[in-house]
Specification:
Order of helices and strands: HHEHEHEEHEEEEEHHHEEEHEHEH
Distance between the termini: 17 Å
Low-confidence stretches: none
Largest sheet: 7 strands, mixed
CATH superfamily of the largest domain: Type I PLP-dependent aspartate aminotransferase-like (Major domain)
Strand content: 15-25%
Strand order of the largest sheet: 1-9-8-5-4-2-3
Bound molecules: pyridoxal-5'-phosphate
Mean pLDDT: 97
Structural class: alpha/beta
Number of helices: 11
Number of domains: 2
Length: 352
């Protein structure tokens, strides 16, 4: 038996919605399912506005543009993350400034940010890493726009709210390996109506309905299709089931692995993380990953710290030792929402 790193949990309603969208002829970047999906995301997060977009990366880029970030500007980004936030900053012509992470939460270390600020700093992108929310209380004290990158954190919480509800605006990804998926997809959420309006304007070719091709700004096409939203709309209806499924797998993995040469990823006392992919650390990470893969378990080493990558290390003005340490010891194990206890146990035994 092979255990992939992840797989989507798709059911009859997803198929039914897609068939319905096909039959209706609404297959491009507007349509009833886009509206349904956006309203459901607003309801889930308590945000005033959600705009569904073609990917999480597109959502980050369009949001940065809407915040007025461009050439000459700097944006602080955590040194340990999938590279999309740093790439998005570069793709809008600005410069990422890499910041170390906190050892307790593995999210951007608020106390490390002030030393990185310059007159050109325009925002901080805070990544809820692998489902662990950032310390938004302390980040807000910086007095800068905060972008919450909740791409990996559907269903995570703190006492102050749910992932997607923090910062000036937040971003989700709905890529197939995410807890809630639409295949490819993303969204920007905010409580600021003017910012939401700019996001929509940029994502819709820089024009509004009724503009008659008199474009107001240089836009892009970042829209989510109605076909994609048809899948997403069915997934948000199963939000609790999909989030709970991965948390149940997490608890069982923890029980099987803790004390057998593995440590679960740490968790801050103030956070109720969700699980994107189950993550553990081991001093013998690389050998463990190699052995697991030989045994048909698609275990993976986590990303290298961006501050250690030749492409990005020039953007780290200061050392990022915590990001480097985590990236050399942490690994993911197969995780999906409909994973059975037998499957978790089988993977854990092979890994042990
Ligand atoms: C933290 C983070 N931000 C942004 C993205 C980009 O999302 P997408 O793959 O939908 O473009 C990802 C993707 O995994 C991510 O992990």
């Amino acid at each position: 038996m092979r255990f992939p790193l992840s797989q989507p949990t798709l059911g009859g309603q997803e198929s039914e919605n897609v068939r319905e969208a096909m039959a209706s002829g609404w297959i491009s970047g507007t349509g009833p399912y886009v509206d349904v999906f956006e309203r459901a995301l607003e309801q889930r997060t308590g945000r005033l506005s959600a705009t569904a977009l073609s990917s999480g990366t597109t959502a980050l880029e369009i949001l940065l543009c809407a915040l007025g970030v461009g050439p000459g500007d700097e944006v602080v980004v955590p040194a340990l993350t999938f590279a999309a936030p740093a790439a998005a900053v570069l793709n809008v012509g600005a410069t990422p400034v890499l910041c170390d992470i906190d050892a307790e939460s593995w999210t951007i270390a608020p106390e490390a940010v002030p030393a990185l600020l310059t007159p050109r700093t325009r925002a901080v992108i805070a990544v809820d890493l692998m489902g662990h929310p950032c310390d938004y209380g302390r980040l807000t004290e910086l007095g800068l726009p905060i972008v919450e990158d909740a791409a990996q954190a559907h269903g995570a919480r703190t006492a102050d709210g749910t992932a997607g509800a923090f910062g000036t605006a937040s971003v989700f990804s709905f890529h197939a390996n995410k807890v809630i998926t639409s295949g490819e997809g993303g969204a920007v959420l905010t409580d600021d109506p003017e910012l939401a309006d700019r996001v929509r304007l940029i994502a819709h070719h820089g024009m509004r309905a009724g503009d008659g091709y008199r474009h107001r700004v240089v836009g892009r096409n970042g829209r989510m299709t109605n076909l994609t939203a048809a899948v997403g709309a069915a997934q948000v209806d199963r939000w609790d089931e999909l989030v709970t499924g991965r948390l149940t797998a997490t608890r069982l993995y923890d029980a099987h692995l803790t004390g057998h040469g593995f440590l679960p990823r740490p968790k801050a006392s103030w956070a109720s993380p969700s699980c994107w992919l189950y993550c553990v650390t081991s001093d013998e990470r690389d050998a463990t990953v190699r052995r697991a893969r030989r045994n048909s378990v698609d275990a993976r080493a986590v990303w290298p710290a961006l501050s250690d990558l030749p492409l990005y290390r020039r953007y780290a003005p200061r050392p990022c030792p915590v990001a480097s340490a985590v990236s050399s010891t942490a690994m993911w194990l197969p995780t999906w929402s409909h994973m059975t206890p037998e499957e978790v146990t089988a993977v854990a035994e092979l890994v042990r």
